[in-house]
Specification:
By secondary structure, the protein is mainly alpha-helical. The protein has six helices and two strands, in the order H-H-H-E-E-H-H-H. It binds zinc ion (2 copies).
């Protein structure tokens, strides 16, 4: 059974997909389908479809039978909190620990959904709530 995170109540796989979908929707490129996402991630459409069903059960994703998918409003909320975690961490790793952006991004990906929210919030405060991450993407601040 997959490890479930206590704070976010998501598996690592679910967190990964939510972040990917949030990024793709923010970029506003072509609408995401099971097939397009599978090709992009180098995965089998069947496994992407399984994950879509799980996210849909949790009311995080809305999808038609074969058509494009999109995050539900709850999905956007959960995904933006994940993106906040990721981008604050990588930005902190660069500015406070002098990692390069790629190292920082990779390290952040390992722990972004596992690290307690209070720690991320403290990092964000320490950096005065940066508006953009090390890659120049905007950082949402759902922590209030
Ligand atoms: Zn990153
Ligand atoms: Zn903040």
């Amino acid at each position: 059974m997959a490890m479930r995170n206590e704070e976010t109540d998501l598996t690592a796989g679910e967190s990964f997909y939510l972040k990917e979908l949030f990024r793709l929707e923010a970029e506003g490129k072509a609408r995401v389908t099971c097939v397009s996402l599978a090709a992009q991630l180098g995965l089998k459409p069947a496994s992407v479809s399984d994950m879509f069903s799980k996210l849909e059960e949790k009311e995080l994703l809305e999808k038609g039978r074969w058509g494009p998918v999109q995050l539900s409003s709850k999905g956007v909320e959960v995904a933006s909190a994940l993106i906040w975690r990721h981008r604050v961490l990588e930005t902190y790793f660069c500015s406070a620990l002098s990692l390069n952006p790629d190292e920082a991004c990779r390290a952040a990906s390992h722990i972004d959904s596992a690290i307690p929210k209070v720690v991320v919030a403290a990092m964000c405060r320490t950096m005065n709530h940066p508006s953009a991450c090390v890659h120049g993407y905007s950082i949402p601040h759902p922590e209030g």
